[in-house]
Sequence to fold (348 residues):
Amino acid sequence: MSHVWLIKKQSMEWSKSTLNKLIITLILISLTTAIFAESPYKKNIYRAFIARDMIKWEKVIRTIEASNSINTVDQKLELINYYYGYIGYLIGIKQYTKAEKLIIKGEKLITEVLLISPKNATAYSFKGSFIGFQIGISKFKAIFLKSESKCNINKALELDPQNVQALIDKGNTLYYAPRLLGGNKKEALTYLLKAANILEVPVVLSSINPQTNGDIFPEITGLFPNQEIIARKVPSFDAFEDEKTYNAVKRTNRNKLVISGLWTSMCFTYTALHGIKDGYEVYGLIDAAGDSTVDAHNYGVKRMLQAGVIPITLESLVSEWMHDWNNPKSGELVKNVYSKYGAMIGLK
Fold:
């Protein structure tokens, strides 16, 4: 895909209202590629993931369960991994009863793995995640279970600081937790831009009234040390009303735009709508944006969707940029983004 990435800055603070989710994750396909390379199920799971076909995903799980071949540590971890992805999906669509049944199955397998391999970092990370899934179903359980979940994930990292699953799960706890509990939305955006830099996606950085609103985060500008940060002369919420900003986008000769920024209902929305009006194919990076209230964010998103903006999230965006594991930059992405910062993208 030919994209230009436009990030806008209106204020130094992210909205607390955008941090109201707990751990809900998707499986990291690179894990299944690396750990279960000889698995007969890997290809079907990958296809299900790419197509977002959770019926096919569940079918793979049922096939493995019926095979009576869940004997080795790797076989058990593979099934746990597929439970992990499917449970996150079920929680996301609020099928809590079904999710709880799979959590029980997964926890049983995790216990079996740790009996065989008591220093297995991946198993400890899964253990922390499955406890986190219980919090995802009932947020009140965070009071009692959060420390136990965190303890298991930290133990996984102590056993193996480079363990991919542990890094993913540590990232998720930071990302989806409220700021009060350590969440940090800004880091996610930072690492998305790192991926954009690796893949050589053109980036336009634009701000409004930096003298009063503050500069763009140094974590972001540091990734593009030679790039101008355009302080818009036209103090409009619509970045494209500023000639210099709009010309910078047009010079990329791209017809697809990925836009995000603060606030969702103002700078983000008005710029995205302008892009649609001018014939661009506009993708709105929803989970990197925020607003002053939940309603302002939600209705800003709804307005964009009604106008034809295509919603996209951090992990799916970078995977679409990369396209497949044959991309010559895939190794660099695994090293600097996927394996360190979260489930598909951007989490440290």
